[in-house]
Batch of 3 targets.
Target 1
Amino acid sequence: MYVQIFKLTVCFILIQINYRGRIEHRIQQLTEILMKELQISPERSIRGGPRAARRAVTQLIRLGRSAQACELFLKNRSTLSKYSLRQVKIEGNTALYVKKLCELFFNTMAETCQEFIKAFPDHFGCHAGKWTYCGEQCFICAYHDNFSKYDVISFKCK
């Protein structure tokens, strides 16, 4: 009798290990797909917007990958920000050009922070990453090609 119970217990443990391995494999596959969805590569067009990124982030968080979700979300937003800054055309008036760049940059930063709060409402550990991202983006913006061509500091706010 004890031998049968032991055999059943061993069999149950082996089945459990087998299913656990399958589940982990599926989680890994899903994580890779979601991470690719958040990555923007040169051959892929920029599409989806913040809501699509938020869906992928939500799924990564549910899979227990909140740190990866945070990092990929901020990289995604950084790429979108750089792309949108490059799209601003230089016009005759330098002050108008710099004003457009600044408006675009800070509106994008504000939108990124709002989307971050929506995507990571209960993950306060990720918020440090958001502030690091904001600091890095301000540094990049100050020394970006679009801004460094002009002495932005000499422009007076009206």
Note: Residues 2-154 form one domain.
Target 2
Amino acid sequence: MNCTLVGNSSQYYVYTYAYPKCMGSAIFYVGKGQGDRIHAHELEAMGLLESCNLYKVAAIKAIWAKGEQAVKEVVAYFDNEIDAYMYEWALINMTCYAEQLTNIARIGMRPTRRVKPFTSGGICIARGNRVFHHVHDLDVFRARHGFSKHEFSALIDGKVPAIRNWQVVQDCAI
């Protein structure tokens, strides 16, 4: 894999979108692109381009509603698209912030179960002092932490207050 930190317009790159510092700085989207692709998501949020990811658009609009801008960062450049896809996949699926991403994971063409991003609060999942703010991909979170579908649904739907010291915290700050 040939990866560089300095690129040109013909190279592929992997990038992130994050909340501004005043909203917690959490990364909420990871993408792969070439040219001006990194800016396309804001055009989607403005309604100038069609978007199939309403979660990402809602996160960008929530940032704008606070008078802020999303923090965009190119994290690596690649000479070929396959390497860029592999790096993007790794960031989406193998990092500590994967549960917070608004990326739509697809199994075939079916999106996984997700919750919407929140502007001033929302669902957070906590265990002891560790809080996972704004978990968007509930299926991935459930699988990573060993919940059965039945017990996790009961926790999220409020049918049980806690399972194995995990609890849902309502109205948490970003």
Note: The first helix runs from residue 37 to 45.
Target 3
Amino acid sequence: MAPQTNLSAGKRDTAESILNAAERLCAARGIEAVSIRDVAAEAGTSIPVIYHYYKSRTNLLRAVLVARFEEIGGKYDRLLTALEAQKAPAVRDILRAVLEPINQWRKPGREASLQFYALALVSPIPEVKDALDAGVAGFRREPFPWTEPEGPAHAGGGGWSTTAPRSSGAVTTWPRSKSCAKS
């Protein structure tokens, strides 16, 4: 889903088709090699339409990441909530919660999402790195109760946060847990 949720259905379809075209092209050619002109041709739209929706190539790339993180956010939330309910979850359950949401991109027809994500991980473009960091940090949760030797992680207003990232370009910092603060 495109980040612009207040658009009409036709405009949402256009925005989504632009995102999908950008993702496919970046997956095939590399993020640095794709231009707005290439995306316009692939999406069957004009360059001004892309600039109307996304304002810049960088915003378009951020929007692809934001849309994909929003797509998997619900699944992460459900799996992590199930882990939180367990007193001492098995390692396989922890790994499943971390890997399963992204693993859906391995399904036929979704390979471009996985390839785009992999390329974003090594992209030299600072805005792509920042958007990726913000997306990953958007799924962070305070330490699990069973990882805190001094009591529940939720004491003192802690809690879980799976807020999907926004295309602000700001770098997200990770809060230190009580156990990290002692070292």
Note: Confidence is low (pLDDT under 50) at residues 1-5, 149-183.
